[in-house]
Design a protein that fits this description.
With 487 residues, the protein is of the alpha+beta class. Helices cover 58% and strands 7% of the residues. The strands form two sheets. A five-stranded antiparallel β-sheet has the order 1-5-2-3-4. A two-stranded antiparallel ribbon has the order 6-7. Helix 1 packs antiparallel against helix 6, helix 10 packs across helix 11 and helix 22 packs antiparallel against helix 23. The chain is flat, with a radius of gyration of 25 Å.
Length: 487
């Protein structure tokens, strides 16, 4: 269902709006306006990265006071200094006065953003509007939290039973585990009671039957189901599927994926995981669909589905939230999308026959051909770059960027190659600016841009770029060093 970009949250629930923007990987600003305030959520590639509010109680000082990080006396003193200063921010003043250390300030801003987003779920009537495109980055700090977790926390604050019943499916509806691995394997910290209620969902019981058979009160059980449905882990059983067809589909789903598979945490070592991402990403252009899904031509539909669910859990984009390397998300997203394209092709008998025939005849399948060629050009560009053949690398990276214009990573590599050739500094800048239009909150891109400006002797511009990188990722070592060098 396509969500209108403007409307009122009384007609379209905020959870549906957020999930739609996340799934379509939008970049822009979502505003929610009532008579009392306007609150905004900033998206980059479908991820929530910042939030702001005109409501006085949502200001950073008030948030820190309520969280017990500062005292009333310290708050009043900071306000006094704030009124007398020009252009200073309260957070910076609190650090200067010695009331906070920078680490506490960073925590406070992240806490403020989460509280603003979660408070928006309590608004029952208000106009919303999403404006796609760029927005100022100087105020933004990357919020490393999945949209699923934000929705989970926000929806849990709702205590209006009438609203919950009106927004979720009818109580006669039958729920089952989602068939979408993007929803199924989200990075969400479920409570124990959520997990228990989830275990009652079998694709046969109605919402009413699950609520009635639970050990908790009806409202609490209803709310848990609402939360799980809101974050997409549960979905309605299609009404048209009855009897044998429904039982067959349910039996296959149970064979392929179990509740234990969903809830069991992934324990791969971080370094091993990173290496596997890099290796898989580097070979995306050369692997055929069977190799990507780790099956052979004889694999039946059940084996194909099992492999797909196993791999999409492993390479789910939410896995990057625990890492300081923002570029991991881009690579995981590319791998996840490639797995989904491969599965969608191979699960369809006619498409599978056509694809296998094209492999045997040595031809590439038409679908996804541009992405495949772009990945090949990029891989060849990396090879040339490592040899020191920068001009050849530039040509390869340029072709990759032309074939996949929305792929910010290709533009970043193009900029890197340009930066190795003295007369191409301007082109290096333009390539990075183009990449930042696609991913405005990529700290690595901002820090690389700072290095380009330093090489060009533009110290002031370099300093500003390093500052932006550190506001997004305070731990970025390149930006820290660059900032020191440009003071």
């Amino acid at each position: 269902m396509e969500i209108p970009l403007t409307g009122n949250v009384k007609d379209i629930a905020l959870v549906k709006i957020l999930m739609s923007l996340n799934r379509s990987r939008k970049t822009g600003t979502l505003s929610l306006t009532t008579r009392s305030f306007t609150k905004k959520i900033y998206f980059s590639g479908g991820d929530v990265v910042f939030a702001s509010s005109t409501f006085e109680d949502d200001r950073l000082g008030e948030m820190l006071l309520k969280a017990g990080k500062i005292t009333v006396e310290q708050y009043d003193k900071s306000v006094e200094v704030l009124k007398a200063s020009k252009g200073k921010r309260q957070g910076a003043i609190l650090v200067e006065l010695g009331y906070l250390v920078p680490k506490d300030l960073f925590w406070g801003v992240k806490y403020q953003v989460r509280e603003i987003v979660q408070s928006m779920f309590l608004v029952e009537e208000g106009d919303y509007a999403f404006h796609e495109g760029e927005f100022p980055t100087q105020e933004v700090i990357t919020l490393k939290n999945s949209v699923g977790n934000l929705i989970y926390s926000g929806v849990n604050k709702i205590v209006n039973l009438t609203r919950i019943r009106s927004e979720m499916p009818h109580t006669d509806s039958v729920l089952k585990l989602s068939a979408d691995p993007l929803s199924l394997f989200q990075d969400i910290e479920l409570s124990q009671q959520d997990k228990k209620i989830l275990s009652l969902v079998d694709g046969k019981k109605s919402i009413k039957q699950i609520v009635d058979s639970s050990w908790m009160g009806s409202f609490e059980a209803m709310k848990v189901l609402y939360v799980l449905w809101a974050i997409g882990m549960l979905e309605e059983v299609a009404q048209g599927k009855k009897g044998a067809d429904q039982r067959k589909e349910q039996h296959m789903d149970e064979d392929v994926i179990s509740l234990d598979d969903i809830l069991k945490p992934y324990t791969a070592e971080e370094e091993i995981f990173r290496r596997k991402i890099e290796e898989t990403f580097a070979h995306l252009g050369s692997l055929n669909m069977m190799e990507l899904l780790e099956v052979d031509e004889r694999a039946d539909s059940e084996a194909l589905k099992k492999s797909y669910y196993r791999l999409t859990k492993e390479f789910h984009p939410d896995r990057y939230f625990s890492s300081d390397d923002y570029s991991l998300k881009m690579k995981l997203t590319e791998i996840f999308d490639a797995l989904t394209r491969a599965y969608d092709t191979l699960k369809d008998d006619q498409k599978r026959i056509a694809y296998l025939a094209s492999l045997r005849s040595g031809k590439q399948a038409e679908e996804g051909d541009s992405e495949t060629r772009a990945a090949e050009e990029h891989r060849d560009g990396v090879r040339e770059f490592r040899k020191g053949n920068y001009q050849a690398a530039i040509e390869r990276f340029k072709r990759a960027a032309q074939l996949a214009p929305k792929h910010a990573g290709y533009l970043s590599y193009l900029s890197l190659a340009y930066s190795k050739v003295p007369e191409h500094t301007k082109e290096a800048e333009e390539a990075l600016l183009a990449a930042l239009k696609i991913e405005p909150f990529n700290a690595e891109f901002h820090s690389h841009l700072g290095l380009v400006y330093m090489k060009a002797g533009l110290k002031k511009k370099a300093h500003l770029s390093f500052q932006k990188a550190l506001k997004i990722d305070p731990g970025n070592e390149k930006a820290k060093r660059g900032l020191e060098q440009t003071r």
